[in-house]
Design goal:
alpha/beta, ten-stranded parallel β-sheet, TIM Barrel, two-stranded antiparallel ribbon, 302 residues, 12 strands
Length: 302
């Protein structure tokens, strides 16, 4: 049985008016969106630091869950990241989810003192991190030890315990990472410009393969799709010419596309990255697109 669709927003961490992220987060929170996510590029001088911004916005909101989309593992020690996430989860009453990525902009990562990892090493580090994150959260008050190929934890004393079981989302693209997602993670974040709809069946098959090999139910693993574009005023399902991987059209057209992604391609979590008047775009997404998708899904499943 398909998981019920979730809807979120992808906030731009570009430094500027410090009040703006709070205004946008409040709009997303008050309009019932499920997830607030922020990209993590610590080496990008134009961006606020992800975890600091995420924490501030989490404490300024009431119900929306928060997550990096996705955390940059090479510059974030996994045992410490586990403690950061657990702490914020406690402070927010269980509203933290953790998106995690293996890294990619290696020159920039190295410039900040991080490692420059070849693919095999990046994969090994990522698998180690998944073991360490879950191990730290599951062993509060005990001694935790893990020896991996890249990371090791030697008699750590984890704590505090998270307020709930924190879901781990991966930012994965390659076959090995997608199988690992199915084997160990709770969800996947991918972006439409990098993974167009026609490639989703292949992505899903690899996740399902990994889940099956680990004895897990493939349908329990969430499939998150980052969708960039513009919602235009107007009635009906009207599409407008746009760039590849970018959706432009009316709220009705957005609802049709997302419903298609949900029912045909088995995506279940939709993260909106609007442009232009972002506050207005978030409101249109939450007030017009999301209810329309829910109506379409309910009608076709009844």
């Amino acid at each position: 049985m398909a998981l019920a669709p979730l809807f979120g927003v992808f906030l731009d961490p570009t430094a500027g008016d410090p009040r703006e992220p709070f205004r946008l987060a409040k709009i997303a929170d008050e309009n019932g969106l499920d997830l607030l996510t922020i990209q993590d590029h610590p080496y990008q001088w134009r961006f606020y630091e992800n975890w600091t911004l995420l924490t501030a916005l989490a404490m300024a909101t009431e119900r929306i869950h928060v997550s990096p989309n996705v955390a940059n593992l090479p510059l974030r020690l996994p045992a410490v990241l586990a403690k950061q996430a657990a702490t914020l989860d406690v402070l927010t009453g269980g509203r933290v989810e953790l998106g995690l990525g293996a890294g990619g902009f290696w020159q920039a990562i190295a410039a900040y003192g991080g490692p420059k990892r070849p693919p095999a090493e990046a994969y090994a580090a990522f698998e180690d991190a998944l073991h360490i994150l879950r191990g730290m959260w599951d062993n509060t008050g005990k001694s935790f030890t893990y020896q991996g190929k890249i990371y090791a934890v030697k008699g750590a004393k984890p704590g505090p315990a998270p307020a709930h079981r924190i879901p781990i989302w991966t930012g994965a693209l390659g076959p090995k990472m997608l199988r690992l997602t199915g084997r160990m993670a709770d969800g996947l974040f991918i972006s439409m410009p990098y993974v167009p709809p026609e490639k989703l069946p292949q992505v899903n098959a690899l996740i399902d393969e990994g889940a099956g090999a680990a004895g897990r139910l493939p349908e329990a693993i969430r499939r998150g799709y980052n969708l960039s574009g513009v919602i235009r005023p107007g009635e009906g399902s009207i599409s407008l010419p746009g760039q590849p991987g970018v959706i432009e059209g009316t709220a009705g057209y957005w609802a049709d596309q997302i419903t298609l992604f949900y029912q045909k391609y088995h995506q279940d979590t939709f993260i909106f990255w609007g442009s232009g008047d972002v506050a207005q775009q978030i409101e249109l997404f939450a007030r017009e697109v999301v209810p329309a998708v829910k109506e379409r899904v309910a009608a076709r499943e009844s």
